[in-house]
Design a protein that fits this description.
This protein has 545 residues and is mainly beta. It is 5% helix and 43% strand. The strands form 12 sheets. Strands 11, 12, 14, 15 and 16 form a 5-stranded antiparallel beta sheet that branches. Strands 26, 27, 30, 31 and 33 form a 5-stranded antiparallel beta sheet that branches. The longest helix has 16 residues.
Length: 545
């Protein structure tokens, strides 16, 4: 009996010792809290060379403290030392006298267990007898899409020189939240130049060409009467350095070239081989990518000289290629490994079904040098007749299909070899269906516009893929009617067309030109078949920045 009792007690003890904590439960999402600061937050006349922040739990320091920001910035970053629950900040240089500093404890400080970050905690101190207390708020959004951009920096400068954002740290700065809102704290009264930019390399300077920026048109006087700034609009500068980014040879004889900036003009000359066959290329001012076609047999080497122009920048490049090596390796479009495609590819736009006002187009993979019109036939009803409605130009990469019976279904057939490109490649047989939407398949949009900005404006209706399906220039309030719209989701925007070019124009920092304002209609437009949708839009513009 005693042995049985002893065995029972041991079993209970073993069971208790082997007990595993239950799974689940609430996950700790609370960031660490500062329990003590030495010197205290909001201290004046601070002379200490270090600050010690003690937290309520053990912490980690991520990325060496790169998420801790001090405004105004110091020329030399402080040293961050972690001791259990305490973070010590040691200054390597003496802060300026009679200056209010704001240190924002960003995402660098996290708890040890779950990695919860202490975000945007402000620690403020003054090296003088006064704490600057002015606060300024505002919002930054993309100039065209009106969307907020993460990690945007808003910077304030006391200097007025144009190059200051590239070479000097700002006097004050703040980072926008996910909604594009920002708060500049503990600012001293005075006049400032204010910029915002996407700080992609985290150096608090406008150093990368792809960093979008925004700016106030005038100096801003910060005092107790000013508590918020007008909305800032970010745009991508177009005044970077002209560079050749990429060149590639694609068999059989296609060359692709891409530049860093959209060009004003472009020319190309073939140096080798000198067989006299003309180059073909497609270029329009405002493009940064060019496609070149080099007819003739593949040579051992191809040498081209290109000349690109953007404003006052001129660039000449000598491009060398080895076409035979590319062909031998099976480069370009291929039907099977190691064989080059010898067929001209033809695609149909806009689709298999069209509206009466649409134009059917053919897109070619290379410029077409010749069309055999005898190999084109039209079949509407039971009769098949030669098709003579093809509109094209020599060396073009597209053609239009005209003379189609309105509202009548049929087929346009192009036999093999109807189209021949400059390399001698021919198309496969192609059947183009001609099938129309009926009025009952389409919708109608009636848009009443009022309270427009002064001057010229452009109204754009955009489909869910971002394509502009309707564009209308207007100068005064009016009602717009769009008929024959395909069912689906649309959005609408209004552009303040200050330069009257019918399109949205970007900003220019050097010229102090703001990007043209864009207003977005506040809701999605859901078009349905055989349905009239009426909308009213009172476009009330914000004051100019």
């Amino acid at each position: 009996m005693k042995k049985a009792a002893l065995w029972f007690v041991c079993s209970i003890l073993v069971a208790c010792a082997s007990r595993v904590p239950p799974n689940g439960g609430q996950v700790d999402k609370v960031p660490p809290e500062i329990q003590n600061a030495e010197p205290a937050n909001l201290s004046k006349n601070m002379q200490s060379d270090r600050i010690t922040l003690t937290f309520n739990e053990f912490i980690e320091l991520k990325d060496g403290g790169s998420g801790i920001f001090i405004s105004p910035p110091l020329a030399t970053s402080p040293e961050y030392i972690l001791k259990g629950k305490a973070l010590q900040i040691r200054f390597k240089e003496k802060p300026d006298s009679n200056t209010t500093y704001t240190m924002v404890i960003g995402k660098s400080v996290t708890d040890l267990s779950e990695g919860n970050a202490l975000v945007d905690f402000p620690y403020v101190f003054s090296t003088g007898a006064i704490l600057d207390t002015l606060k300024v708020t505002g919002t930054v959004k993309d100039a065209f899409t009106r969307a907020p951009l993460k990690e945007t920096v808003v910077a304030m400068y006391t200097s007025l020189a144009d190059s200051i954002p590239q070479v000097q740290l700002p006097r004050y700065f703040a980072r926008c939240d996910e909604s594009g809102n920002f708060t500049l704290r503990n600012v001293k009264a005075g006049e400032y130049r204010i910029l915002a930019f996407c700080d992609l390399n985290n150096d608090l300077k406008l150093t990368l060409p792809e960093e979008k920026l925004a700016f106030t048109s005038d100096l801003i006087r910060i005092d107790s009467a000013l508590t918020s700034l007008p909305e800032l609009s970010l745009f991508a500068e177009k005044n970077g350095k002209l560079k050749l980014l990429r060149k590639a040879f694609e068999a059989p004889g296609k060359v692709k070239i891409k530049y860093s900036i959209a060009l004003d003009s472009f020319r190309v000359e073939r140096i080798k081989p000198t067989d006299g066959k003309a180059l073909q290329f497609q270029f329009k001012a405002g493009q940064d990518s060019i496609g070149l076609w080099v007819p003739g047999e593949a040579a051992d080497s191809l040498v081209l000289v290109t000349r690109a122009v953007y404003k006052e920048q001129f660039r000449t490049d000598t491009l060398l290629f080895s076409p035979k090596r590319v062909l031998k390796a099976g480069g370009g479009r291929s039907r099977s490994k190691g064989t080059v495609d010898t067929t001209l590819v033809v695609k149909l736009e806009p689709g298999l079904k069209i509206r009466p006002r649409d134009t059917l187009k053919l897109r070619f993979s290379a410029p077409v040098a010749r069309v055999e019109t005898s190999r084109a036939w039209a079949l509407f009803g039971t009769d098949s007749i030669p098709y003579t409605g093809l509109v094209w130009a020599a060396d073009s990469m597209s053609a239009q299909l005209r003379q189609l019976p309105t509202g009548k279904a049929g087929t346009i057939r192009f036999l093999k070899g109807a189209f021949i490109d400059l390399f001698g490649r021919k198309n496969d047989s192609l059947a183009v269906p001609v099938n129309y939407f009926t009025p009952e398949d389409l919708g109608k949009l009636i848009f009443k516009l009022s309270a427009l900005p002064d001057g010229n404006c452009v109204f754009e209706l955009v489909d869910k893929n971002g394509n502009v399906v309707e564009r209308v220039s207007i100068q005064e309030p009016r009602t717009l009617v769009f008929e024959g719209l395909l069912p689906g989701q649309y959005s609408a925007r209004l552009i303040e067309d200050t330069d009257s070019n019918g399109l949205w124009t970007n900003g220019d920092w050097k010229l102090r030109r703001q990007p043209e304002r864009v207003f977005l209609f506040g809701k999605e437009l859901n078009m349905r078949a055989d349905w009239d949708l009426e909308q009213e839009w009172k476009v009330i513009g914000a004051p100019r920045r």
